[in-house]
Amino acid sequence: MTSAPMTQDELKTLVGRAALDYVVRGEIVGVGTGSTVNKFIDALATIKDQIRGAVSSSVASTERLQALGIPVFDSNAVDELAVYIDGADEIDGQGHMVKGGGAALTREKIVAAQSRSFVCIADVSKRVHALGAFPVPVEVIPMAAQRLVRQFAAKGGQAALRMKDGAPLVTDNGQHILDVRGLRITDPLAFETEVNQWPGVVTVGVFAHQKAQVCLLATPEGVQTLKYA
Q1: What gap in Å lies between CA 153 and CA 31, rounded to an integer?
Q2: Going by fewer Cβ within 10 Å, which terminus of the chain is more open, N or C?
């Protein structure tokens, strides 16, 4: 008799627990945002007495960490983090990612840049050959939004403001998000570099300069560990 396949929620729990192996005891850990990271935060609470605390990439994660009794530090109060643990909307074979489905991409990129290593936790559905099937989030200054829509159209992308409750979603930083469909990103480094230079772009949700060094990928057979040079 074979057991039933694990649900996506069970896979997220599995990989969230596996990430504890990468937490450096006695230090402050960088913590991302999203449903998979929430499973990691819950697991982190079981070893909270072994770490100094966390630097968080969003208000939502900060609230969850604090509710579980994990101290949260301002990023400016910490020089460097040993590891940043976060999910991804897509990850390719080199560790490049698309992130920002949870609207926290700017703070996620800041904490990733502050960390010596990035450990991505994801389920197998997030692994892709080329980035772009998931709409690429771009945090933008509101007055630039429509010009940036036209700029993405020139690259073959269809950009639209992310909405919430009938109005443009407002990020933790007070900005808006464009979700860009129709892209196939074959050179993530070049794409990230170019779009980040466009006036009005705060952050593009391609993580190539701050790519993952390790991906813990939850599969029906268990957690696979993928390492990138």
Answers
A1: 34
A2: N
